[in-house]
Amino acid sequence: MEEGLKKYIECMEYIQSHPEYKDEYEAYFKNVTDEANRLNEARLEGYLEGMRETRDKDRKNVISVILERGYSPEYIERKLGFDPTPYINSLYNIALNRKKK
């Protein structure tokens, strides 16, 4: 067995045999675990937000091309399975902002 693992087992046995240390260790371990979970959830939320942004950009690009080819929003909704209205509004707002400049 590795020396570090032996030392860890020895420390854990000592903590388990002393109730005053056991309670303190369990509280410490819970805090460390909770913090790790919070960080993991934040990382995951950031990843999901990035995925949503990418999805929205891709949808906007596809809808733009389909509209340029003359298809209606109803056709887009039927074929793609989601309401294109927010993306069309976004495209329209982008076009208006470009014209103002």
What sequence of helices (H) and strands (E) makes up the elements? HHHH
Show unreliable segments: none
Whole-angstrom Rg: 28 Å
End-to-end Cα distance: 71 Å
- What is the percent of helical residues? over 70%
Structural class of the secondary structure composition?
A: mainly alpha
Number of helices: 4
SS elements, strand count? 0
**Biggest sheet details:** none
Strand content: under 5%
Would you summarize the structure shown here?
By secondary structure, the chain is an all-alpha fold.
Secondary structure elements and their pairing?
Blueprint: H1 3-17, H2 19-68, H3 73-80, H4 85-100
Please, could you describe this protein's structure?
With 101 residues, the protein is mostly helical. It is 88% helix and 0% strand. It has four helices and no strands. It has helices at residues 3-17, 19-68, 73-80, 85-100. Helix 2 packs across helix 4. The longest helix is centred in the middle third of the chain and has 50 residues, at 19-68. The chain is rod-shaped, with a radius of gyration of 28 Å. The model has no long low-confidence stretch (mean pLDDT 88).
